Here is the input.
Amino acid sequence: MFRGVCLVNLDAKGRVAVPARYRERLQSTCDSRLVVTVDRDRCLLLYPEPEWELIESKLAALPAFDNTARAIQRLYIGNAQEVEMDAQGRILLPHYLRDFAALDKRIAFVGQGSKFELWDEGAWNARTEAALSDTRISELAVAAGLGSLTL
Amino acid sequence: MFRGVCLVNLDAKGRVAVPARYRERLQSTCDSRLVVTVDRDRCLLLYPEPEWELIESKLAALPAFDNTARAIQRLYIGNAQEVEMDAQGRILLPHYLRDFAALDKRIAFVGQGSKFELWDEGAWNARTEAALSDTRISELAVAAGLGSLTL
DNA sequence: GATGAGGTGGGGTAAAGTGGGGAATTAGGG
DNA sequence: CCCTAATTCCCCACTTTACCCCACCTCATC
Here is the structure.
């Protein structure tokens, strides 16, 4: 499981350094091959390639005549892009994905289980603050059957 | 079960000494490997790694298209960070977590069952005082179904 | 008062993160 | 089809940070 946030810089060429603590694992699990795509919440999702294959096959299996399914396929598969770590452990983000997530300089590189999320630092902080002040989180957590969750 | 509060100092490098009475147990149960994350009350939570894995797997199993579930995942998994005790029994708290809980120097290191809580000393004292002077506590305890609790 | 463990501080070093130059490749326009 | 421009890739170098180790200080105990 990937976890934790790491603040990194996006350089003028659109590269971000993958935090070093993940690199060895990414080399062994996916030979440094990753897939970036968009997220509904205007951040980017970064998957080790095998993980992405799983998602992609699930999406591809959705009914072809369902409009919502097709919208989802277009969003995730259509915007997906393979990237590879260079010798310094950096990945190059395509320009249209940088624009999509409004990434300019400071990036929050967030571990989220089997994938990563890439946020503009300001957007990430705003999300965190919003989650903290949102009382629905505890209410809905209980409603979702997490009442017994011992955090 | 961990219990009791212990006041320790955060040094200039962001390290805190784990109270010695817990160290041996942490070495045997989790090989000195711990996970720190945030709490909604602006303190930090410190879990032995196996304990954290339990929680993380519950969180990871939440539905991906539920906005509240994702907010919870982002908050807890996204801010989680593995830490390891050094030879002196100290852990290094990442800068963003120190900022989050407004930790500067004096820390309350609080045992809370299977985990620990880390509070700024002032915030901890204020919490305690607030809980004592809050006359609604008894009412809320009853409302929460704790009426028959024999302390 | 001596002794030892718990707690604290700091310095040196290796590694992580960052920036940029220049070659190679691709795309677009004349 | 060629020339130009932009992008990507590979390399090197610098700066900063985190980590490891050693040393000291303080307090309780004997």
Q: What stands out?
A: Residues 2-120 of chain B form a domain with the Chemotaxis protein chec fold (CATH 3.40.1550.20).
